[in-house]
Amino acid sequence: MPGFHRPHADFHSPLHLKVERLCVERGGRTVLRDISFALSGGETLVVTGRNGVGKSTLLRALAGLLPLLSGAAVLEGAGEAEFSAQAHYLAHADALKAPLTVLENLEFWARYLDAGHPAQSLSPSAALEAVGLPHVAQAPVGILSAGQKRRVALARLLVAHRPVWLLDEPMTALDAASRRRFAKAMQDHCALGGIIVAATHEPLGIEEARSMPLGAMS
Ligand SMILES: Nc1ncnc2c1ncn2[C@@H]1O[C@H](COP(=O)(O)OP(=O)(O)OP(=O)(O)O)[C@@H](O)[C@H]1O
Q1: Ligand 1 center to residue 26 CA distance, Å?
Q2: What is the DSSP secondary-structure string of 13-39?
Q3: Using one digit for the tens of pLDDT, what is the confidence trace for 191-213?
């Protein structure tokens, strides 16, 4: 039976993500066929390839938002919760509520995501500091620039710890300083034993990241 399996593990085991022969369809067409890779805690995988090759599809499938035609993704060492509950998924869209203030958005996400690992989670205010936006805390998100909204979306990753980050074009709209800041946040996540799978056309700023080019399906 294809799907996400959750082997028994405790929070003290090193993380290991194993993706085996993943196949995913979109609109009746096989977009991903036999995608396999393995990552240990501390590692980053950068998924590359031309527009439409299936990078976002891979991340959405790993996040549990698309069914698998076949294959499996197994996360070991992250506890008993479902795989999708162990991963942050950052999509192209920022998932912010325009009428709420920046701080209210982050407070919502901290509650919704249930910051169950307080030692590794930041408070909403601290997360805003981390993305360099404390001065807009009380502004409605709707009035922010595209890059500022992206930075608030990135702050969401910090208010509730998740061992796996699935990031779709995380650097979109970010200026140079914000890219450096987020590269540091990703490095810190890996230094704590986390795993990152990122789809991007641009450099992530993580020198030791592995690269996986996706090829076109015939
Ligand atoms: N909802 C959908 N229904 C049918 N086909 C879809 C759907 N969403 C995406 N596709 C198709 O799936 C394929 C892969 O799309 P995907 O968004 O994963 O590509 P990508 O590699 O992330 O592209 P980009 O670099 O442009 O972001 C494309 O051919 C696309 O047209």
Answers
A1: 8
A2: SPPEEEEEEEEEEETTEEEEEEEEEEE
A3: 999 999 999 998 898 989 999 99
